[in-house]
Amino acid sequence: METIENKKIVVPGEVLATGMDFLPSSGTYRDKDKIVSIYVGLTNVSGRVIRVIPLRGRYMPKRDDTIVGKIMDMTFSNWFIDMGCANMGVLSVREISEFVERGADLAEYFSHGDYVVCKISKVTRSSVDLSMRGPGLRKLGPGKLVQVDSSKVPRIIGKQGSMISMIKDKTACRIVVGQNGTVWIQGAPEDEMVAAEAIYKINQESHREGLTEEIASLLEKKASKNKPLTREDEEPIMERGRNETE
Amino acid sequence: MKRNDGRAPEELRKMEAKTGIIKRADGSAMFRIGETIAYAAVYGPRELHPKFMQNPEKGLLRCNYNMMAFSGSGDRVRPSANRRSREISMVIEKALEPVLDLTAYPNAVIDIFIELVQTDAGTRCAGICAAAMALADAGIPMKDLVSALSVGYLRNEIVVDINGEEDMNEGATDIAFACLPITGEVSLLQVDGEIKKDVLLKALDKAKEAAMKIAEVQRKALKERYHDKHDA
Fold first, then answer.
1. ipTM of the complex as predicted
2. Which CATH architecture has domain B15-231?
């Protein structure tokens, strides 16, 4: 069996392997005996399975993803939420944790321009349904918003949330990372800046080796004087996203 | 026979390619072949307006080809869509469609804007090359890249990648050609002029060969964007 280089940069149409020894997974397809990439991305080989992880791209909604979105519009019974993808998400009044009385003004709950954390409950051809029932799913308060590529989210979270908890500890900020690449940061203004800088850096250089150490030293240099948040201050949301798989 | 710019019959003009040059676009690329320079920007998949154009079965690929006012070698190019640019926009859409799976984007659109800042024949082909790279750069799943070039038949000889002067020749036949480099599948073929069947087939073989060289340039440019930071 031939060996395939891991974390190699490939382009669409590039042949990753020939023969039947390997299995095509996400980001690849099989053309007769060849396995071909469909993204500009990094190869990821585990055993016989080949994947290509895209380096860029818009967010594509997936069931059970936790996202950070903006309220764009509302009707009598729904909110429409922008998640940074082609179709808007629909959040029904029945899907929020509070009780909403009949005929109530929905703007009293969430109004235009508010940011919320939701979970995608269903994806169909014509719509994306959202839900706000679950731990940590809520309206977000004042804070800083950072937009990154959705394909970089696993890297920002890190293995078992290692990267994001490091940033949170060192900057004493509350952070919510949506799978759609929208990141909400809340803390002292200078701490928010440091956290945002670290997140931007990960977004830009996710394909580099030794990034974790670089982020660690960046945070060390600009470390916050504030005490890290304790478990009680934290919200359970932060470990909810899909983690880096390796 | 020597060509007017000293190239061999099967020699391409000098090529240059870059990706990620337009910051606000989801994906972007520049492709230069000789004196023809094309820029492409991709936006989307995003919501499609006007709404009546939305299709719940399939997304739309919408392409806009434009020659900038100062891009020609003669008179100022009038800056509006005309019959020619609309037709070219349409053939570029058709040339790129085979590599995309538009059913993944119901009610949405992928917009491609192709701007030519300098032209010397082969603009639609340079546009396709740039657009294919911009699509890949935007992280849109693609079966393959698309590589395009023009082949000519003039003075009883097949010449690859004709330039503006050759294109102007009396009786020159200009063939615009695009293919998917791994399968060799043809996605664009336009012939302007007269040509015999056997000559055309021969010309297409040469075009395919040359397209492989273009594909190599495209691949390199797509990777370079990330390699730079490796060294930094």
1. 0.90
2. 2-Layer Sandwich (3.30)
